[in-house]
Amino acid sequence: MEKRRTSRFLSLALVFLFVLCVVGPVSIGQGGSNVCTICVEDGVLSILRDGREPETYAVDGAQRATFRIQGDKVTVSFAGNGEAPFRQSYEFVDLDVVWDDVAKAAYAKDPLRISSYVDREQKIDAALWQLSAEARACFWQSFNLATLRFDQALEKMEPGEKLAVIADIDDTLVDGVMYTADVLQDGEWTNAAFRDSLASDACLPLPGAVEFMNYVVDKGASVFYVTNRDPSLREVTYLRMAEMGFPMVDEEHIFIRETGMASSKESRRAAVEKDHKVVLVLGDNLEDFADLFPVKEGVDARRDAVDSIRDEWGRTFIMFPNAVYGDWEKAIYRYDKTKTPQQRMQDKIAILNQYKYTR
Ligand SMILES: [Mg+2]
């Protein structure tokens, strides 16, 4: 009994230290700092704020706690089983903390998501860049190059060959910046919210995308859409892609990431290659092109892998710019989900310094 109590005490102490490490003290910039400490002890979660009485809540495996930190105010709300909404806006920072009843531990839900003020500001700047004239020029440039390469492939086509173009959807053909704008302003990071966003009039094709995909089909080739959108987005994908004017929008040509499927697109690309000659692949993330760039191997390995196939870029592979999100970001911290925002920032600075004199 005594042993059990000691081990329980030790595990609670560990939980306390872990939660303290992940969640607090928390401070946000502009308008002064806000410090709070969140701890979990004996299934009870406490929030201690400057000079105030601690707030306590019961936490168990069925509950998920969401903390809202705004100015000097901290609020917490619970959701039942299932996916808790991930919320964020310019004024506050949220962290979802999950109580794992088996491990008797609390952990921040995917702490690598937008979970700090600094990250939010970076996301806003990145989203604004996606809307810039410079970004538009990149999209026109990429589709102009794709057209040139497609015409060259047509000229070399052998009799009986079936040519195909494979394209990712989000931030390659369709602009995702409207969803980012929603998330950054108190929107939710869920498939349901993404579906609403895709269904709205704010969902628009990127410059040159509709024209290029129709050009390919008009010339007698096929287009295939390989996307990691969730199956719950299937209907809205068909509906909106058709409404925007994209060709070949059907089950045969749209490969969604089905339930249980890995994020890798290799098997879906292989399915197209079985009876087509793929002359172009379009994407905004290295994973759209090949499985050569694992995020867990870090930035250096991915850069080397890109260099190793340097002749593909601008020939078979057309890369589109995306400064908002992508595997490039995960690779900085090797997709280590246990890292805190502070540790991730250290990793970012280390990469900056590493490449200061080496390109
Ligand atoms: Mg994409």
Outline the secondary-structure elements.
Layout: H1 2-23, E1 36-41, E2 44-49, E3 55-58, E4 64-70, E5 73-79, E6 87-89, E7 92-100, E8 105-108, H2 117-130, H3 133-155, E9 163-167, H4 177-184, E10 185-188, H5 191-199, H6 209-218, E11 222-226, H7 234-244, E12 254-255, H8 266-273, E13 277-283, H9 298-308, E14 317-319, H10 327-332, H11 341-354
Parallel strand pairs: 9-11, 9-13, 11-12, 13-14
Antiparallel strand pairs: 1-2, 2-3, 4-5, 4-7, 6-10, 7-8
Helix pairs in contact: 2-4, 3-6
The structure holds magnesium ion.
Magnesium ion is lined by residues 168, 170-172, 284-285.
Question: Overview of this structure, please?
Answer:
With 359 residues, this protein is of the alpha/beta class. The protein has two domains: 11-109, no CATH class; 122-354, HAD superfamily/HAD-like (Rossmann fold), CATH 3.40.50. It has eleven helices and 14 strands. It has helices spanning 2-23, 117-130, 133-155, 177-184, 191-199, 209-218, 234-244, 266-273, 298-308, 327-332, 341-354; strands spanning 36-41, 44-49, 55-58, 64-70, 73-79, 87-89, 92-100, 105-108, 163-167, 185-188, 222-226, 254-255, 277-283, 317-319. The protein has a five-stranded parallel β-sheet, sandwiched between helices. It has a four-stranded antiparallel β-sheet with strand order 5-4-7-8, covered by helices on one side. A three-stranded antiparallel β-sheet has the order 1-2-3. It starts with a helix and ends in a 5-residue tail after the last helix. Residues 12-37, 59-64, 69-75, 78-95 and 103-117 have low confidence and may be disordered. Residues 168, 170-172, 284-285 line the site of magnesium ion.
